[in-house]
Structures are given as C-alpha cells and as structure tokens.
User: Fold this.
Amino acid sequence: MPIPSDMSKPVRKTAKLHAYHQLLNWIIDGTLQPEEKLNDIELAQALGVSRTPIRESLQLLESQGFVTMQPGRATQVTPVQKDDINHLLPPLASLQALATELAAPHMTDEIIAELEATNQQFANALKAKNFTEALRIDEQFHQLIIDTANNPYISQIVEMLQAHVRRLFYSEKIILRESSIETHAKLIALYKAKQTEELASLMTDNWLYTLEEL
Assistant:
C-alpha cells in the first residue's frame, strides 16, 4: 500500500479529523486506489497518529461510501462507478440551487466582489488548461454561495456529495467547460441586480450539463 512520506504531521486539530481529511483526499485523488486494501497500522504510522483515530475515520468514510469494512477480513477503498454521476448530480444540483436562492438576501458587495475575483481565477486556470486547479477554484466559487446561504444541513450534505463528484472528476478526467465562466458571471449579475427568479434554474443547469456530456 504506497503512502506518501513527504507530508507534514498533524497540527493540533483532532487526530481523527486530521486522519479523516487526509484519507479522504487520498481516496479522491487516487493515491489510495479503488479496491485497494487499507492497513490501519501503516496508515497510523504514515499520519503520525494512533490506530484509534484511523479506525474512527475509516468508519466515517464507510458511512459516506468511500470504503467498505469487513470485520476480520479487509477494509478496502470502494470502486469508482461512472454511473454514480447520475445519482450524485441531481440532488447536488437541487441543493446548490436552493442555496443560491437562500444566499440572495445576504449577498453583500464584498461577497460579490469575492465571487468575481474567484471566477476570474477560475477562468485563468481553465485557459491555462490547469484543470485540477480549475476544479478546486470552481468548488471555492460555489462554496462562497453555500456559506452565504448559512444553512448547516445543506452545507454538510453538499460537502459529502461534492467529495464523491470530485473523485469522479479525477477518475474519469472530466474537464470543466469554459462556458461555466459565463454562467458564473450571469449568477453574479443576477445577484447584483437583485433578480432572484432565474438564480435556481441557472445554477441547476450549471451542474447538470455534465450528465449530457457523459
């Protein structure tokens, strides 16, 4: 089980939280391959923590569908199923659309300016064909809206769904379209004009285009 050795040891956030986020990132980017068997002793040594937070993290990852645990046998990374995109994107699109509407009354000039700056960074990354960076910035753009909506339940569910989508993007090498730059700009324009009627449908379309391409 290859594990990177050139990583920093945990800062004093909880060992469980550190282990969970690191394992999730490794599963998403393919460092831990689909169906790879996981050894909690090796993972604990690599992350500089005890086996307890590793086991707790793996249990959480199992509940979210990233690993399967068979007591007495093996813990494995779940396989990537391309068809899962059909199950992931519709609820994610609906929640993102709802958040887009909920954020409207709280959208300040400062947040709008941050959205504009983020969209410009997104455009730069796409034009440079740095698709990994573009995906990260695209998530940052949408997270600004989620945060502004200020609904913890939407935020938690979106975070989990988004992690699965991110894994599929890495695995299937899905490339974000440059038309997303224009869609982001339209969303910003609607916020500026306080025209909320089209926000939800525009955000929904922004997420569901991937289904048409696949």
About this structure: The radius of gyration is 19 Å.
